Amino acid sequence: MRKNMRLTYALKWVGKVLDGRGRSKREVYEEYGGRSPYIHSYSTRNRYLGVAKDFVKWERERGVNRVDKVSYEDVREYLEEKIDRGVSEKTLKVNMSALRKFFGAVGRDDIAKKIGEDYQEIYSQGRPSGRALPYTNPQKVIENLRDDAHKVVAELQYLTGARVGDVKKIEVDTEKRVVRIEKSKGGRDREIDFSDRPERFERIKALKEELDRHMEERGWKEIRETYYEDLREACKKTGEVYTGSHSFRVNYAQERFEELTEERGLSDKEADQTITEELGHNRIEMSRYYRY
């Protein structure tokens, strides 16, 4: 197996080489020391290949097209985006198992091994149920975070509706009072107009400057990897249900809807359209999803 093969070809190849349907699990376990490199179930095969296909699409949107160009940091970021969206522990387990099989099959044992080593640490950041819920008191959750850098990240999520992975990408246009986030999910750029919310814009500007200082001192990777556990503990202290950092995004959508309809007099449809664009989505149904 050539490690420099294209990811799209690797997908097709993996679908064939991992097909263990009809093979005895017991015999395979004996041959490979208790862990099968194959997929023995039709439904599991489809589910795992679906995860691999989604990951390959995600990487290609970022400009990564070959197996040898994939890094473990890419895999972590992919999984952490799912954590940000509030996926369940079960879903994270499926995703990690699928990617572990995929990378083992394409000769990237280094990545497959790291996924195995970090398996429990990653899936434990998922939530028991399947949907992100808004915090009843997001400010109190933020105040109860132990780490100052985490407080900055959380407040920026709350004030902008940003995914946690997008917080470091925030750029502030002081003249236009616009917040820009380049290459968000799906490679889309986001632009949020804060001309109607000048005080909030100034707060975002100050927070971004503070975050830049934290990143210079500690690096974004360390801040992000320790963020989730701190957030989970803050939820315990405040009696909130932990459903991931995506909850701040839900809070933003719900509070923004009230601002647009009650203070600016927009119709529900107009408000939903504005929120959809601010959150970086295409379908207006996503705003409604966050509101209900």
**Largest beta-sheet details:** 3 strands, antiparallel
What proportion strand? under 5%
What is the succession of H and E elements?
HHHHHHHHHHEEEHHHHH
State the end-to-end distance.
Answer: 48 Å
Judging from the principal axes of the Cα atoms, what is the shape? elongated
Task: Describe this entry's structure for a reader.
Helix content is 62%, strand content 4%. It is mostly helical and 292 residues long. It folds into 2 domains: 117 residues, DNA polymerase, domain 1, CATH 1.10.150; 154 residues, hpI Integrase, Chain A (Orthogonal Bundle). The chain has a 3-stranded antiparallel β-sheet with strand order 1-2-3, with helices on one face. A hairpin with a 4-residue loop joins β1 and β2. α5 runs antiparallel to α6. The radius of gyration is 21 Å and the shape is elongated.
Give a quick precis of the structure.
This protein is mainly α and 292 residues long. The chain is 62% helix and 4% strand. The N and C termini lie far apart (48 Å).
Q: What distinguishing features does this structure have?
A:
hpI Integrase, Chain A; 15 helices; DNA polymerase, domain 1; mainly alpha; 62% helix; 4% strand
Chain-wise SSE layout:
Elements: H1 7-17, H2 25-32, H3 42-61, H4 72-84, H5 89-105, H6 109-117, H7 119-123, H8 138-143, H9 148-160, H10 164-167, E1 170-173, E2 178-181, E3 190-193, H11 198-218, H12 220-238, H13 246-263, H14 268-278, H15 285-291
Antiparallel strand pairs: 1-2, 2-3
Helix pairs in contact: 1-3, 3-5, 5-6, 9-11, 9-13, 11-12, 13-14, 14-15
